[in-house]
Amino acid sequence: MSSMTDIVFLLLIFFMVTSTLIAPNALKLLLPQSNNQTMASKPITSVSITKDLRYAVEDRFIRLNDLERTIIRKVGPASGYPEPPTISLHVDQSVAMEHVVKVMNIAKNNQYRLILATRPSK
Q: Which residue from 107, 24, 25 is spatially nearest to 67, judged by alpha carbons?
């Protein structure tokens, strides 16, 4: 029985170590800080803008001209859902606001809800 507990503890340690190696978002962004944190009920997709102004839907980089078409293809029309789909916007804190507004306009024009991802302030 003692050897069985040793195996269980080794498996537990193995899974704890490997679970910390998984990165939920592969893009490295320095998000702005905020005191208020709001969670979306079900974010459908995430859009990211890196500090060098590269746009990505999920982890796939795309051109700005293809951004709206890619989001619509991924999410679909808002009328197909009981409540509007949510887009999580991840923007590096050094990006100018005009680039954020472009994505906000895409969400507004397609009747998607949009949340801006932030990191908690210390």
A: 107
